[in-house]
Amino acid sequence: MNHLNTVPSLAHIQEAHQRISPFIVRTPVLHSDALNKMFHTHLFFKCENFQHTGSFKLRGASNAIFSLDEESAQKGVATHSSGNHAQAVAYAARKHSIPAYIVMPTNAPKIKIEGVKEYGGQIFFCEPTLEARERTAEEVIGKTGATFIHPFNDYRIIAGQASCAKELIEEVKLLDVIVCPVGGGGLLSGTALSTHYLLPHSQVIAAEPALADDAFRSFQSGKVEPVLSTVTIADGLRTSLGEKTLDIMQKYVSSVILAKEESIVKAMRLIWERLKIIIEPSCAVPLAAIMDDTSGFFQGKQIGIILTGGNVDLDKLPWQ
Amino acid sequence: MNHLNTVPSLAHIQEAHQRISPFIVRTPVLHSDALNKMFHTHLFFKCENFQHTGSFKLRGASNAIFSLDEESAQKGVATHSSGNHAQAVAYAARKHSIPAYIVMPTNAPKIKIEGVKEYGGQIFFCEPTLEARERTAEEVIGKTGATFIHPFNDYRIIAGQASCAKELIEEVKLLDVIVCPVGGGGLLSGTALSTHYLLPHSQVIAAEPALADDAFRSFQSGKVEPVLSTVTIADGLRTSLGEKTLDIMQKYVSSVILAKEESIVKAMRLIWERLKIIIEPSCAVPLAAIMDDTSGFFQGKQIGIILTGGNVDLDKLPWQ
């Protein structure tokens, strides 16, 4: 299949997981007695920072790319992204021996450009506006016949990202709640589906920076609300939802909780210090939102947290 | 037994491993395709940065403390240290429900003092000289009857540290060489013994900062040579060997290789970036020494590297 036209079923998610398994890391789940004591909870951290390319994005990109039919695949794949999705598409395309055309803004971080190059992606630079990115991608697709791989608003992507919560649930088994960061909502909607199918009595809660609360507002209004500010340190979460991800979110996600910027930095540093792992600021948003919660809801609960990636510029740490 | 008076046999090491297993993490072994490609080797990193208390030191301390007879144990244990050994002794003593008396210099890093306090150790501050540390420890032992737990020059400690290479060998099986950092030599001599018993055709190589090359000189001269300078960034390796560790080293270690300071920083950053884990500068010394090696010896080999710990001050990173 080139496309998946319905909300992924459990069978679709299992099929996706099987398809991508040879190419992804079954990432470990870590915990820390000190953090559990500090938050009066049992926290289980699913470490997608250890995934190839440094983030969960490889799961969705691999599923989308490996499920292309032979003719489409030979023409290659394209996307526009300045972040982890670009690296994931380039990496998965190389594993599939097909070309990857990546449109990147001229101001993309050097480290991300290097990453895409390292994985063999062909880069097309454009002005740093969404319009220029989309136009350049269309031009590249017009010339090459490549298939566009959307970073989140695509059921193949969602089914791939769902494999992450599936692994977490298979490993930990009893979880009262899974807290997942939300940007475009690909990981969140995949997590919500896997949890709905495999742990139906558990809740999925989305965590978002208070400074980029578009998912919170979209969840309330029922339509995709734009991001109004991109100043949050959680650079992976500055994206609006898509129609598909919002739809799944409204059906299967319990609530959206918000995290203050200072709590995001504090939570990020706590995870570095206590788990001894490198995570991006976006990953720290769930723990930060738990930190900011005053309802007592999380006390004593078994909580799964998805750590989405570890691509950080070590020269610019947020506590410096 | 309160003491082990001979070089640990395989049975001693197995017994130590069984004794401490319920209290330690069986730490994961990580690898990175990118690092393998960069160094033309197959590198297997044993991650003791994920050990409780953040370092391998817990293995030796637990073995020494858990093998005390009941009467000695009740009087508690004592040590002097400003580093990872202090935290390990405090943690293991609490697990054994006995008091830990830790002598620390007044200038010990605040984070290490907090660590010892967190694990319930009773701290006795002294002037920051070796003489004051030893005198204060003697006073405390005189008053309490506590047993002194040496950080490395003790066969119980060596047998405990040997469990780390034992796990690495059990997991990876085929290793041509294990490269291990050397400070006091507890981990190194344990690693050399486990490798001698379990992988007799493999080599153990010690890695040391060129700026603190006392083990290199001791290995050549056959007697314990003093550390002449403590300026290396690898703060865990500023210690001289002991008689027991040098003796084992001379029998079972192939060679000592040296690493430049700039290579240590470079290797540390590479491990942070590629493995997405937090390690101390001391851990980076083996990879740095491999980087500095010009003989071609390591090319194509299966190499085990022990990452000793992850207790780093995140406000003072060496590349800043």
Automatic annotation (TrEMBL), chains A, B:
Record-linked InterPro entries: Ser/Thr_deHydtase_PyrdxlP-BS, TrpB-like_PALP, TrpB-like_PALP_sf
Gene3D superfamilies, alphabetized: 3.40.50.1100
Keywords assigned by UniProt, alphabetized: Lyase, Magnesium, Pyridoxal phosphate
Domain of life according to the entry: Bacteria
Domain Tryptophan synthase beta chain-like PALP: 20-309
Cofactor names: Mn(2+); pyridoxal 5'-phosphate; Ca(2+); Mg(2+)
Pfam family, one: PALP
Keyword Nucleus: no
Family listed: Belongs to the serine/threonine dehydratase family.
Protein name per its UniProtKB record: Threonine dehydratase
Organism: Thermoflexibacter ruber
